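Many introductory courses stop at the sequence. We go one step further.
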Amino acid sequence: MSLFSKPKAVLWPKDKSVNLYLDKSENNVFSLDLNLWQALTPAELQSVDLLLSQNNVDTCSILIPDDIVFTKSFIYDSEITSIDKAEVIGLAKSFIDFKIAPECLDYKLIPSSGKTIIQAHIFEKDKLSALETNLKSLHLKSYNFESVSQSVAKIISENFANEYFLIYPLNQNEFTLLLAKGDSVYLTSNLKGSPLEVQKIVNYSKLYFSTPTTKFYVPSDPVLEISATSALDKTPFNQGQIALDHKKSANLPLPVLGLMSLNQPQTVIINPVDKSLAKPKNMDNKKNILPFIAVFVITAVIASVIIWFVLNKNNTAAPAPEVSTPSPVPTAIVMAPTDTPVPTVTSISKKIKIQVLNATDINGQATLLKEKLVKLGFTSVAVGNSKDKLTANQLKVKSADVGAYFASQLTGYFDMTPTTDLTKTSTYDAVFYIGTDLSTGTMAPSATTSAAPTAKPTAKVTAKPTVKPTATVTP
């Protein structure tokens, strides 16, 4: 590094503090008791602004903790090339404690053996907005965001390209667990306490890959107690040694190292709310040609109007001939007499959107009910876990007809009293909440149903919607 070069800088806002890391051998870590996740006054920000100025930092990367940006992946039962952002929000909202803002959602589609993985990053808007308000008050020319888990995955992918779990320590009793393949993160989860229960998330990994993932990277210090029924392949990692291997200072944490050591461009997960912060340097040159473009467009429009008027001046559009539609020939309908009237339930569309949520501690419940619904002909059924635990089944619907249909078809298997609690703007037309053990129940005989299948492992979220081929995916 030359005498006058600027060190690479990483700003890591934590719960009630912020750390500044510099890419140099000495005096490279600074910590301030400052909460950048709430809006601060310029006077309160003076200490961090002075720190940046003293170290000649005007460009830096911002590390975002994984409790601010949630990484979740969802499974579709078919291959799709596009999906509406509103539907991704509908899939994710039952797993997130805050309201999801569309501008704070980023996702991509990954084909996977006849299915599609929707890999989503979801930011908490209020905290992100407060952070950006504070960053605007600092004398920074530019900055970009990166999640802690994504930065760690970049380091691991240098030596391991297959799927794996990694447990990263945040403090003495709190950890981030990430599931990734190479440098692509599929899932993050915050873990607390000891021992760390990981078997459930190991089972979930089978949704994304052909077999459950048992490869675990664990910190060499502290030594962790991990609880799992599966045999785990544990590989210890030492942050200091990895930093030395990259010819960096040994006190740089793994997420910071991921931003400093790699030559590839850093990933911008989400653009700043204030678009002026990311304005290219040549924007002023573009503004200079805008007036000429405007004149050209206006001239072309006027010319088109004149040409159209001249060509159509002497033409009078002939009225379109009326086409008589023959009256339908009435068809006589003869009803076969029966001794006893058989009550029927109005049929409903099999393309309605359904969500099934497991509100028990019994694994596989949602998948069991989904298989029943698929046998009835329904094609868009998403499954997941309910936040609340229930002891009775519930069904919430938009219309009474839908509720009556399911009440008749699922009698004896999923007994409930439907309620029309869903609003017209709800993503789903029907939401099932499972509060009983379905593995012991049987469905009433029906022409469209068959014997209950063997239970399969619970999928986190699955769905099979009708997708418009012309829609595009937001990167």
